Amino acid sequence: MSELKGYNVAVVGATGAVGQKMLETLEKKDFPIGQLLLLSSSRSAGTKINFKGETYTVQEAKPESFEGVQIALFSAGGSVSKALAHEAVSRGAVVVDNTSAFRMDPDVPLVVPEVNEIDIEKHNGIIANPNCSTIQMVAALKPIQDAHGLNRVMVSTYQAVSGAGAEAVEELTDLSQAFLNGEDLDPELLPVKGEKKHYPIAFNAIPQIDVFQENGYTFEEMKMINETKKILHDTELSVAATCVRLPFFTSHAESVYIEVDDTNVTVQDLQRLIEEAPGVVLEDDPANQVYPTPLSAVGKSDVFVGRIRKDPDHPNGFHLWVVSDNLLKGAAWNSVQIAESLIKNNWL
Amino acid sequence: MSELKGYNVAVVGATGAVGQKMLETLEKKDFPIGQLLLLSSSRSAGTKINFKGETYTVQEAKPESFEGVQIALFSAGGSVSKALAHEAVSRGAVVVDNTSAFRMDPDVPLVVPEVNEIDIEKHNGIIANPNCSTIQMVAALKPIQDAHGLNRVMVSTYQAVSGAGAEAVEELTDLSQAFLNGEDLDPELLPVKGEKKHYPIAFNAIPQIDVFQENGYTFEEMKMINETKKILHDTELSVAATCVRLPFFTSHAESVYIEVDDTNVTVQDLQRLIEEAPGVVLEDDPANQVYPTPLSAVGKSDVFVGRIRKDPDHPNGFHLWVVSDNLLKGAAWNSVQIAESLIKNNWL
Description:
- Chains A, B: Substrate binds at residues 159, 245.
- Chains A, B: Residues 8-123 form the Semialdehyde dehydrogenase NAD-binding domain.
- 2 copies of one chain form a homodimer.
- The first copy, chain A, is an alpha/beta fold.
- Chain A folds into 2 domains: 2-130 and 331-344, Rossmann fold, CATH 3.40.50.720; 134-326, Dihydrodipicolinate Reductase, domain 2, CATH 3.30.360.
- The first copy, chain A, has 10 helices and 14 strands.
- The longest helix of chain A has 17 residues, at 132-148.
- Chain A is globular.
- At the A-B interface, strand 9, helix 6, strand 10, strand 11 and helix 9 of A face strand 9, helix 6, strand 10, strand 11 and helix 9 of B.
C-alpha cells in the first residue's frame, strides 16, 4: 500500500521561507508522498511542523539522512546543496535544487517546466530550479520565442524582500513602522546579509541584490543573464539586466523589453500567445486599467503579464510587465512541478 | 532701492507640494525678489505662508493678478496654466511653467539649464519645465550625448508618490500603516486621481502613472519619450519608457539603458563625464557598495548617477542608475534655475 501511496520525499530547509511554501504547495497540490522527511541545519532541528494534520519534527540534514529518499527538494542555501546534494544522489535520490549551486553546471538541467521540461530527462541526479526572477521572465518569453524568434531581452526588476528570506521580511516590517513613527532607521540585513554596508529598504529602492561581481554587475543580474540563455537554449541571445530590491513583501515585477526576429508582429499577436501559454495569464487591458501588480499576484501559482506595447521607435521592439509570486512560481511551485514531471514521465 | 532688491515674482500653486518646494528653493538660493505674490485656486486662497520671516496671504489667481509681475512660476496643474499663462505674459510677465500644458508646443522652449539653457533665449513669454522623470535622465545623458553620441535610450522608472501631490503622500502613509496593522486597504487616489480604478500603493508597485493613451502607453511614458527628444534636440533618438509608481515618498530612480554612437567607450569614460558634468554627481563604487538610492537623494538639488556598466552582449550598450529628488531638480529647483538664467542672461 505504501508503494501506491507515493514517494519518499525530503524537504531540505523546511523551516525557511521557501521551505514553508514547498510544504504548503505539496499539500495543496496533493503531491503523492509516501514518507515525508523534513531536514534543516542543526540550528533549526527540533522544530515541529504540521503537514496534512500530522506533526513532523525537523531533523538535522546529514549525508545518511537521505537513505531511502526518492525525491529531495533542497532550499537551504548554496553551501548546504554543495555539501549534501551529491550525498543524496549517491543514496538514490533525485535532487531538485532551489539554490544557485549547480544552475550553470553543464551536467545539470536548469528547468522551468512550461519552457524546457524535456531537459529534465537528461538529469544525472540533480535538476536545478532557476532564480525566481528568471523563472517568471522565461515563462512569459518562451511562447514569443517559439512563435516569432527572440534576439534581445532587457529587464529591470522590481523585487520583493521575501526573496532575501524571512529575516528580510521582518526588517521591512520593522523599518517601515519605525519610518512611520518618525524614528531613525537602523538597517542590519539588506541589501545582502553579511555585507559591510546596509541600506534602509523601508520607503526606498536598493539597486543591489546579492553581491557585486568583478564586472560591476550583481550576482542576481548575472543569474538572470546566464540562466535565461541556458533555459531558452540560446547562447547568442542578448540579455541585459538591472535588479532592484523594493519595499514590498511578495511577488517580483519586471519591466521587460524584447526584440523579436519577425517583422510585422502586433501587440495582439503577443497577447494571444500569452493567453494561450501554459502557466501564464494575460492581464492586459489599459482602457480599463487592467494590469498585474505584486499585491494582485500574491498566493497565485501563475505568471501574470500586462502592459504589452509596441515600441514606436523600433519595428521589432515590445514592452511587457511580468509579475509573479516569487515564493511560488519563483521557487516552491516550480520545484514541485519539476518533481511532478519526474514522476509523470518516469524520469526518476 | 526696490529695483535693486529684485524682481516681482508670482508663485502660482503656492500651497501645493511643488509650490512649497519652490518657495523653499527661492528662499534657500536667495533669489532676488522685489515683491512676492502667492497665488492659488479659490479653494486655497486665504492660506497664510511664511517666507523669509514675513507672512503672506495666498490670493486667488486671476488674469489681473499678474499686473506688475516680472516672473511667474506656475505649478497649479495644466488647466490653470492653460487659463492664465498667456494672461500673465500679456501683462509683461515671463512664465516658467511646471505643468505639461505647453511642453510640446514648438514655440515654447523646454529647458533643463544644464542641458539646453540656450533655448531659453528664444522664449515668447513661456518657458516649460520638463516632467520630473525626464529632467533627471537628460541631465545624466547630456554629457554622454555630447562626448560619444547617443542613438538609443530605454528607461524603466521607480517613481515616488510625491510626484502625484500631497494627497498621494497622505495615501501612502495611511495605507502603509493600515497594511502593517493588518487592516483592509481602501485606495481612493492612486494611480491617478479621478480614474475609475484605484490600486493600493502600500507595499506594492503600480505600472501606471497618469492616464493611458490610445497606443497603450501612459501619458507619463509619452512625456518621457517626447520631451527627451525635444530637450536633447534629436528627433531621431530612439526612446522607450516604462513608468512605475512605487511605495516611497520622495526621489525618482531610473534604470536607464543607452547605446552610444562611438565604439570602444569604457565605463571609466562615462564615469569621468558624469563626474565633470554640472548638476550631476557620480556615486558609483560597486566594490564599496556605493550607489544612490531615493532616500539618499532626498533634499538635494543634484542628480546622482551610479551602477554604470557595460553590456557584455552589446558593444555600445551601457546601464546607468539615475536618482534625484523629484520635487527639487525634478520640479522646483529646475524652475528656479530657469528664472535665474532669465535674469543672469538678460533674457527676461
